[in-house]
Design brief:
Length: 380
């Protein structure tokens, strides 16, 4: 499915014609003028030209928590993608304004599950399961739109991260069992990333064939029989990350041929066969911690976004660190946050104008906040 491009007007030539260092200098000057009125958050997948200006770096969950704990800041400039800015807006008080430098910075994975599609899937599941549909607990990855988080909150589910997905799924199955006298038939409806859902289930001891089905929103009943729906424990949405889907077992085998002592470290958004062929898998924060704490001289083949891999290699010169994908794997939507867009939103703030504010409607915010709060209660 193609990424849904949000509207973003092109910048004027007074920004697009700037040399890189001039833009960088003006960003720092705008930051100086704004002082603690603004906090700039930079996702790990951003280019170095953005990260150099960030007050904090992290994954989407970490950055949203940071935003919620910066009450002195009037403005949160989130250098990430749209769903991240939405989560930050949900978690921050009303007086804080969350700004996305480029509104066209979306997420192809998040776009693979629309609110309409998920509602239609739930309706079809209800037609098959009847009252037993109450035994399904929806779990959405944090990489999803605010209205999907709201759907999950409305139906008593939770948001999860790549770190706490096992704890979230364990909670969901337990919650499912508590919803009726008949304790059989517990199910998790996991979206939008089938790979994280499958890898999480396998990590918890479930069978990827017997216990799981994939829901294709473009097929009746998601492409499944009624019997398959009734017997499944995991209903996995047919979605994926365009970056992490690129990694393959063949790439891992090639790395092991080239370096006999290489250690393979990949993100859990990768396909199951890649996870099983790797030595370690975990969230972006886990990948960073693992490499930072590794012994000098160690060799790492990493399966995640190239900007992060290159940054880890530069920051750890005593270790050999390379991306498993030889054709590199940038997150194209993250790349839409160009320094000139960051400069534009900051200088607009200096001039008293708020541009590109991300505002989640109150009707969506309440249920989405419930799902995010449940995620925080579950913890890791």
């Amino acid at each position: 499915m193609a990424t849904a491009i949000l509207s973003q007007a092109p910048l004027s030539r007074k920004y697009t014609d700037l040399r890189a260092e001039e833009a960088a200098s003006r960003i720092e000057e705008a930051k100086r003028i704004l002082g603690n009125r603004v906090v700039i958050l930079g996702h790990h997948y951003q280019r170095d030209e953005i990260i150099r200006h960030a007050d904090f770096t992290g994954d989407s969950y970490k950055l949203s928590k940071i935003a919620a704990n910066r009450p002195e800041a009037e403005f949160i400039v989130f250098c990430g993608v749209h769903f991240m800015a939405e989560s930050a807006d949900i978690l921050t008080p009303e007086f804080q304004k969350v700004i996305l430098p480029n509104m066209s910075a979306g997420c192809s994975m998040a776009d693979m599950a629309s609110h309409f599609q998920v509602k239609m899937a739930w309706k079809q599941l209800s037609s098959v399961l009847g009252e037993d549909v109450e035994k399904i607990v929806p779990v959405t990855y944090i990489n999803s739109a605010a209205n999907l988080k709201a759907f999950v909150g409305e139906h008593g589910g939770t948001v999860c991260t790549s770190t706490n997905a096992p704890a979230a799924v364990t909670w969901a199955l337990s919650e499912s069992k508590n919803r009726g006298i008949n304790r059989s038939g517990s199910k998790v409806f996991f979206f939008p990333d089938q790979h994280l859902g499958r890898n999480t289930g396998v990590k918890l001891g479930f069978d990827p064939i017997k216990d799981m089905i994939v829901w294709d929103p473009f097929q009746p009943l998601g492409g499944n029989s009624e019997e398959a729906i009734r017997s499944a424990i995991f209903i996995l949405w047919k979605g994926h990350c365009s970056v992490h889907q690129r990694f393959t077992v063949a790439q891992i085998e090639k790395a092991r041929l080239e370096f006999s002592n290489v250690q393979i470290l990949v993100h859990p958004e990768c396909p199951l066969d890649v996870i099983e062929a790797s030595d370690f898998n975990g969230s972006t924060e886990f990948i960073i911690r693992t490499i930072q704490s590794a012994e000098p001289g160690s060799i790492w083949g990493v399966g995640t976004e190239i900007n992060l891999v290159n940054r880890l290699a530069n920051d750890n010169p005593a270790k050999t660190i390379f991306c498993l994908d030889p054709l590199v794997c940038p997150c194209s939507t993250m790349y839409r946050i160009h320094p000139t867009y960051l400069l534009w939103v900051l200088e607009s703030l200096v001039n008293g104008e708020v541009v590109n504010q991300v505002v989640v409607p109150e009707a969506i915010r309440l249920n989405a906040r419930a799902a995010l709060d449940q995620m925080m209660l579950i913890g890791t």
